[in-house]
Amino acid sequence: MSPTTSETAQGGRRLVIVESPAKAKTIKGYLGPGYVVEASVGHIRDLPNGAAEVPDKYTGEVRRLGVDVEHDFQPVYVVNSDKKSQVKKLKELLADSDELFLATDEDREGEAIAWHLQEVLKPKVPVRRMVFHEITKDAIRAAVANPRELNQRLVDAQETRRILDRLYGYEVSPVLWKKVMRGLSAGRVQSVATRLVVERERERIAFRSAEYWDLTGTFATGRAGDVSDPGTFGARLTAVDGLRVAQGRDFTSLGQLKDGVNVLQLDEAGARSLATALANTAFTVRSVESKPYRRSPYAPFRTTTLQQEASRKLGFGAKATMQVAQKLYENGYITYMRTDSTVLSDTAVTAARAQVTQLYGADYLPDKPRTYAGKVKNAQEAHEAIRPSGDRFRTPAETGLTGDQFRLYELIWKRTVASQMKDAIGNSVTVKIAGQASDGRDAEFSASGKTITFHGFMKAYVEGADDPNAELDDRERRLPQVTEGDRLSAEEITADGHATKPPARYTEASLVKELEEREIGRPSTYATILGTILDRGYVFKKGTALVPSFLSFAVVNLLEKHFGRLVDYDFTAKMEDDLDRIARGEAEAVPWLKRFYFGEGAQAGAAEAGNGDGDHLGGLKELVTDLGAIDAREISSFPVGDGIVLRVGRYGPYVERPTEIEGGTGRRADVPDDMPPDELTVEYAEELLAKPSGEFELGPDPETGRMIVAKDGRYGPYVTEVLPRTFPRAVRTPSSRAPRPSSSRCPWTR
């Protein structure tokens, strides 16, 4: 009998609403007759996207914001235009049903979607909230048998977040339109994430390299070596006459030795002289220090650690990781992928331990199951870590998966199994070698080694690193078996020059890690945030590195100077704390929103607001009302040096030498949109200005109405139309170009 016409043993038909069609298809197969499973296809109702969507009864600020700020911040919800037909279908199915199960995701957003469904469908039959964190037959049937009520506290918390983000975006974004460029956007977490990327680039721009030298020696024991006891090994000079030799960590970002650091900074001449003086020296082992080495397994994946590892090991962006994980979840291969918990259920622990014994043997299984404490503040521990679904884990080969789904499942499976394995153990050794140079100086070299005697969990999984040159945990470095006083000969001693490097740009993985460590935003939103700052043109990719555009410098400059608190890291983290307190029922939403929007009270007026540097006592409304102090040209102008200024204009960045510098004839030249800001040197700006350049409006295209301009590009003059910033980035972004070497660091920082 068809599920759409059959009745359950209790005498009725049950409608189950999930979010996606793929999930609906999987769950329908587990529930069978008596159940109709249909998808809402995501959100069916939200705040309006513009005044045109707001019902006519609303006027003024309510029509603009979609929120009635004068009446306890009541939101105006509208059914999305592309969901009206689906809502109609759901209502028709509900009319023939005797019970409604709202089976949306178990997080805050899922709870809010369930509430919106209930509000729109207005069911006259019993309503149950059905939750599960994996899509298996047992989990789905258990969820049906044990429903709960809607959690109104979670709904209210999600609604508060939505209202807050609407007020932030709809009040601050128009300021960017007026003062920087049309089509830009600001957001509570998005703007802070952009600021982090810009600040890192500022550090790179201000960076000055320091040069330092040391020696590397290759030493021989005089014995025939083998794999377990090598005959030769390398060591690096660490001290001369007891004074430590300077390394990169001893220098500031400006290329100077740090205050209070007592080290010997060798230059090239000094290093080569010492190497020559040590040419015929007899060396001895000064000390051997051996310590036991132990490394415990990594915790099972949560959302952010999965994104980081998928970036390091698979080259996936955060958005791609979540898209693949969503498919794996909906098709029953993994548990729910938006979680900040590292907890495994008893069933999962049993499954993982069984697989350890089966695949690696009992020697790799610890006596007791491992548990992992949550590291994320306000983590929802009721959720599980991301793991293979079911009470028996399928090996990757057993899944039948291919491509990206196979690769991500394999990563999750390995990490989960490894989390229930024994520690890796071994020994770490430090050998110090001494020799007297021909000029009497005492030189000390040092070598470090590590041997792993039992690999434990490393047989299954080793975590990646953000630094491609970093040494992974399973890397062994074997040293000869030597004792104090042993004589060694130097086969070669060479002088090596080094230069300190600017701080590395963020990658998607390291930016996610930074946001989480600063407690900014929620793990479930990071993929969306990264997608937004890339799509908006605030950031672009150079390899895996996130590079801020010149446009983002102008945006962050404005926000820091005039909305400082809104992009302050601590303030943003505190807002997250407050939102979590609201979710726990420890604070009320409306008073909190009033303080955020209107300020602390009457005393928070303009007179007490300060000087516009962002340390503002008033609320958001007051901040965006008085824009007279914001000089649009100043916000978008950055000195390059030698009188040259970089400006961010309507059609992109350009460099300009004002008329008073040029003796009455000002010049300007376009800067490539995809040029990393730290590569804009005075020399390169001079090259651009020396070329015939300019941007001339030729008139609007009669078909599209868009302005046609003549520009001078890298390969000569060309004509193009000015596309709106809302166009897909693939259309707007120039092709990638090779890094440009520069003869000096760029001096501009703001």
Estimate the helix proportion, in percent: 25-40%
Low-confidence runs: 1-9, 602-617, 729-747
Strand content: 15-25%
**CATH superfamily heading of the largest domain:** Topoisomerase I, domain 2
CA-CA gap between termini: 71 Å
* 3D shape: flat
| Major sheet: arrangement of strands | 9-10-14-13-12-15
Describe the structure in your own words.
It is a single chain. With 750 residues, the protein is an alpha+beta fold. It folds into five domains: 14-44 and 80-150, Rossmann fold; 163-207 and 504-625, Topoisomerase I, domain 2, CATH 1.10.460; 211-296 and 426-499, Topoisomerase I, domain 3, CATH 2.70.20.10; 303-418, Topoisomerase I, domain 4; 636-732, no CATH class. The protein is 34% helix and 19% strand. The protein has a six-stranded antiparallel barrel with strand order 9-10-14-13-12-15. A four-stranded parallel β-sheet has the order 2-1-7-8, sandwiched between helices. Helix 4 links the parallel strand 7 and strand 8 (127-129). It is flat. The termini are far apart. 37% of the residues are buried. Residues 1-9, 602-617 and 729-747 have low confidence and may be disordered.
Short description:
This protein is an alpha+beta fold. It is built from 23 helices and 24 strands.
